[in-house]
Each structure stands twice: as structure tokens, then as C-alpha cells.
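Explain this protein:
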Amino acid sequence: MSEEQQGYTGFKQPPEGTPRTGLDKVRIGVLEKQVSDLQTELAHVPDMAALYRKGWDAAAANVVLLQADLDKLRWIPVAEGLPKEQDHKDACGHSINVWCYYGNLGLPERKKLGIPTGYDTDIYHLPSNTWMSGITPTHWMPIPTLPEKE
């Protein structure tokens, strides 16, 4: 028998017109059971798709929240903006302690000023719009809030 006459299950199909035997009926029963099992599995696909979709939506919402948190902790160019009142002001509400990056200073200048790494904390005084150190950084970032005690 040619390969074209063999079905998916590997059972050899008899030529057309051949009467069905008991073995053929068993094979048909096995195939019907496989079809029934597949139909049962496929019936759950919409439920699983909805579950996966719900999971993806939750993950996408978390990505948005994480991106918002990351945006809070990015280096902000001074040309883009200076610290504002909502950026961790002190108890008196007059100044803000922030991280500063001095990308405009070379290493010798930074060493003289005591900031060899290129970044340091500084205090931005709101009423006078000045940096406490007297050095204008190229970038700044709010200092993150401390974790709560457990």
C-alpha cells in the first residue's frame, strides 16, 4: 500500500468498498476518542487565552508603574529644569538635597573641589535658586526616599 493511502494514525487504510472488520471498528473508536480529547482540550483555549491576556495586561500595567519610578530616578539635565518644591524639600521647605553630576568639570577641577567621582550631593536653595556648593552641575537627580522600617 502506498504512503498516500496511510492515514495520520499510521493505520493502513483498506481499499474502498472493503467491509469493516472488528479491528477497523477499534481503530475508529481510538480515533474518535482522540478527536473527543482534542475537542475537550480546545474547549479550554478561550479560557486560557483570557487568563494569559489578563496576565499580560497586569504585566503591562506594572511596566508603566516601573517606568514612572525609573523616570523619578533619572539624571535630569540642568538645562531641562531645576529642582522644584515637590522634589524632597527639607523640613523648613527652603532647600532640596539632591544628587548632582558635574560633567562639565575635568578630573583635576573635581579633585580640587573634593568631588573626584564627578557626582556628589548638593543642596539647592529654592528662594535664591542657587546651589549651596556654588558649583552648577550639568545634571541632578532627587535622592530616593529611604525604605520604611520593617
In short: The chain has two domains: 19-72, 77-142.
